[in-house]
Amino acid sequence: MATIKDVAARAGVSQTLVSRYINGLVGVGPETSVRIAEAIKELNYRPNILARSLVQRHTYCIGVTVDDLSSTF
Fold it and tell me: Which residues contact 24 (CB under 8 A, 6 or more apart)?
């Protein structure tokens, strides 16, 4: 599984620039965007949702506790 570090190395840019591209922030030039997009496609990069939730300190998960597993709820 490719990481953002692998994408940055393949595109010849910094990890920060790749992050800015992925998150749609300003500051990424058109030529650089093309190189990053090609690297993402070549490496089949997909953002790691678990890693993102650790950084953001928010998982968007809901936990449910039941006292009876046979409950229809």
Answer: none
pTM for this entry: 0.74
CB atoms within 10 A of CB 57: 6
Q: How far apart are the first and last CA of the chain?
A: 38
- Convert the pLDDT of each residue in 34-68 to its tens digit: 999 999 999 999 988 888 888 888 888 888 888 88
Structure tokens at 22: 């992925």
What are the residues whose beta carbons fall under 8 Å from the beta carbon of 3, sequence distance 6 or more? 45, 48
Gap between the Cα atoms of 17 and 25, Å rounded? 9
> Using one digit for the tens of pLDDT, what is the confidence trace for 15-31?
999 999 999 999 999 99
Specify the long-range contacts of residues 50-59, CB closer than 8 Å, at least 24 apart. none
